Amino acid sequence: MEHKIIFAGPVGAGKTTAIGAISDIEVVSTESKATDSVSQRKETTTVAMDYGTLNVGDGQKVHLYGTPGQERFSFMWDIVTIGGLGLVVLIDNNREDPLADLEFYIQAFRPFIRKSSLVIGVTSMDKKARPGLYSYHTKLSELGIKAPVFEVDARERNDISVLLQALLAMLDPGVKR
């Protein structure tokens, strides 16, 4: 059995890094030099998608797709989610208003979330501790969404593994982890 998991969130939240940390293959990436305001945050940005795979045993494979974070590439969001079973939203806690970012991505992906499962990973909590995880749960509740929220380091395979295990358990409790 094969699963397709989507990673979404704002620029710099760690989508490309997270897929690279967990993928069993070298990530196929569409990184390009950032030329707009994104260049103040990072040198490159995803313009179409990232792709990796994770073998989870017994012939089961998870296909990992990362969406571009910039809203101007949002046309890719609908394309990448086709056939997807679950969504990982990564939020950079060090951004100006990470709860607004969370709300934006929940609203943008709401049609997909309605027919799939969702987990939230909050990055950069080591740089900025507030808002805390409780605030994310509160925001999700305000939006009528139930989803687990984890503090993660996108560079750490184990942290990304926890996100994917939680998501896969919600999708199919029989998936080997």
Using brief descriptors, characterize the structure shown.
177 residues, 7 strands, 29% strand, Rossmann fold, alpha/beta, 7-stranded mixed sheet, single chain
Walk me through the topology.
Elements: E1 2-8, H1 15-22, E2 28-33, E3 44-57, E4 60-66, H2 75-81, E5 86-92, H3 98-108, H4 110-114, E6 117-123, H5 133-142, E7 149-151, H6 157-171
Parallel strand pairs: 1-4, 1-5, 5-6, 6-7
Antiparallel strand pairs: 2-3, 3-4
Helix pairs in contact: 1-6
* Biggest beta sheet summary: 7 strands, mixed
Number of domains: 1
CATH topology description = Rossmann fold
Low-pLDDT stretches are none
From the spread of the alpha carbons, the general shape counts as globular
| Top CATH class | Alpha Beta
Q: Name the structural class.
A: alpha/beta
* Count of alpha/pi helices: 6
CA gyration radius, whole angstroms: 15 Å
* Ends distance: 14 Å
Task: Spell the H/E element sequence.
Answer: EHEEEHEHHEHEH
Main β-sheet, spatial strand arrangement = 2-3-4-1-5-6-7
Mean pLDDT: 86
Fraction of residues in helix: 25-40%
CATH homology superfamily: P-loop containing nucleotide triphosphate hydrolases
Beta-strand content: 25-35%
Per DSSP E runs of 2 or more residues, the count of β-strands stands at 7
Examine the secondary-structure arrangement and name the CATH architecture.
3-Layer(aba) Sandwich
Protein name: ATP/GTP-binding protein
Family: Belongs to the GPN-loop GTPase family.
Organism: Marinobacter albus
InterPro entries: Gliding_Motility_GTPase (IPR052705), Gpn (IPR004130), P-loop_NTPase (IPR027417)
